[in-house]
Amino acid sequence: MLMKWIKCQVNEENKRSFSKAQEGWGELRHCVGFMGQTGGWNRNEPHEAGILSVWKDIHCYQRFMKHQHDEIFGKSDQGSTYTNISVDIFESISNIGTTDITDFVDKGKLLRVAECSVEKDKRTRFEQVLIEVGSNGMLSGAFGKRQNGRYLVASLWDNEDSHQRYADKEWPALINESGVKDISVSLIELHPKWAVI
Predict the structure, then answer these.
(1) What's the domain range around 91?
(2) pTM for this entry
């Protein structure tokens, strides 16, 4: 699988227009290899939207970018609603726990996305701990990586309290054990109308 993590900076006066445009990505569900998308506003950065998209593999994603992306994007007029965009692609995806993240893209209330680097000799252990980790309230999760040791760890949550327990207790223990550094965490309050399944 492949995860695409999109962050857009949106001025206050454009947030409504951006949100309306984001609701227009429903055509994704007809694209070969598309598995699900969710997103919303970053609680820590109110003018930042975060969107997580999951694809079967890089070939399906590249086909979409070449043949379908520009048409959908053009119809939405979304390009005029944000001031900056960053797009990161992570492959070699594994699920956290036993459930597939795409089963829950339209069910969670919060999406936590952590971007981090892991020391080379500790990456195997980091991945093993992530696969095994489970937390009450975590609906599902997945992580992807790049060759340079950069990871994207995404988890979907059904309530605030469960997420906070994980953030306060389990995540720090994982970091200490696994040689994680350069961590950036986004906490996205999911917008139901942005979900595409």
Answers:
(1) 2-191
(2) 0.95
For residue 98, being part of any structural domain is answered with yes
Does some domain include residue 57?
yes
Confidence of residue 195 (pLDDT cuts 50, 70, 90): very high
Task: Report the distance separating Cα 153 and Cα 155, nearest Å.
Answer: 7
pLDDT digits (tens, 9 = 90+) for 19-73: 999 999 999 999 999 999 999 999 999 999 999 999 999 999 999 999 999 999 9
